[in-house]
Write a structure and sequence with these properties.
The protein is built from ten helices and two strands. The chain has about 260 residues and is mainly α. It has two domains: about 80 residues, Arc Repressor Mutant, subunit A (Orthogonal Bundle), CATH 1.10.10; about 140 residues, Four Helix Bundle (Hemerythrin (Met), subunit A), CATH 1.20.120.530. Helix 5 runs antiparallel to helix 10 and helix 9 runs antiparallel to helix 10.
Amino acid sequence: MTFPTAAPAADGHRLAPAGRTTAGETVSRLELSRTFGRTASAPSIADEIALAVATEIIEGRLSPGDDLNSVDLARSFDSSRTPVREALLVLEREGFVEITARRRPRVARLLLREVRELYNLRAELYALVSRAVVREASRTDLETLRGRQRELEAAAADDDVDRYFWTNVQFRNTEAAVAGDATLRRVLDSLGSRALQLRHLSLSQPGRLEPSVQDHARLLRAYEDRDAELAAALTQSLVRAGFTAIERSGWTGEEP
């Protein structure tokens, strides 16, 4: 099913247009399908709705506290309300949506204190990943990371925040796969959904892409030099710089 071109999303924003096949959308669908435990190649209507709403939230077109109207969503996707309910339950499970009695579902809020805690944990976990990459990466693995780095550089040169963000997600996923620690990967995935919106917000701040791409280049060199402690320190610095950008953006997690 393709997204309708004329139907608005739940809050009046329009969903992604039909036929859009950008690299960013392809990556977002694959990443979110993986995180949701769904099949990207043959998604159900409920999957399509969940993917569309999650992408709207991650890329900032739906804000914390925004209502999600199940009738409007059903109309947008030419479906009954049953797939909408299924999609909203998936989104609630993944931390994107809050569902409470006697009111519409709404985009979940995450307070700045919770964001700080989440980023501190991510910094420690990705330091473990970086040490494992230094230890485990083959030449082929490093070449894959070099390819991701070239994609980051191209997206930054085009000032394409969405493409840069989703390529950054791929870079981090590649690191986690190279690390080869299944338990660590599961823990990161459990944090991933809530972190995606914040990571996009961070990278969308003015002047963020160029420092980020330079920091990733330094991290890649640390991998190539097999310097585990430097790689871990650079990874932690990257994650914490993301939180600093969120803090400076004025994010509170409350309704506007």
